[in-house]
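Protein modeling request. Please complete all fields; requests missing the sequence field cannot be processed.
Requester role: graduate student
Desired output: 3D structure, token encoding
Chains: 1
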Amino acid sequence: MNNNNYRSQSYWDWFKTRLKFNMETIIRGLKPDGLFFTSDTHFNHINILDYCQRPFDNIEQMNEALINNWNRVVGKNDIVFHLGDFSFGGAAYWNNILDRLNGKIYLVVGNHDLRNMRPSIMSRFECVAMQMYIEVEEQPIYLNHHPFLCYGGSYDNVWQLFGHVHTRQNNTGQDAPRLNVLFPTQYDVGVDANSYTPVSFRQVKEFINQQIISKQ
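Delivered output (216 residues):
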């Protein structure tokens, strides 16, 4: 047996027993106002400054900018779907950030969350799941950490919102060439693609409509 596969499988088994969460959550009947999406904040992750060329001098400055941008657009009673890679560090680091963020936060688990999330953090979110499916004014949307090559309804105006790939200008990462084959109904809501700020449902709708027109 491949040792890497063994370690990965063992950690996944450990994760499932330590953290109780849904594999998929379905939420219907959401209203468009006060609804936001974001991903890949990477709070407290020092290396992300270099990896993604983020325009901050240090991790404290980045954290403050992300928190200020979040609270500038998100109200205390608004809903935010965070599509993964929320923060690095232990529970104290996560709690410090969560204490300062507005809104009711739903978390789709990202690959870094698998390593950094602690059981005590789970209750701080409205819901934690590997995948979510929501409907906003009859608009069906899949919410995932990673972009999909294909998904149900991709040819019938079903959206997929994602993160992970850190879409940005002059992106030279390994995933950059693959982004050219996405459906126009897919959109990266990560902070690197959206001025380090959560995007509203209406903004996403406008972005996707523009992508559909440009592909015609």
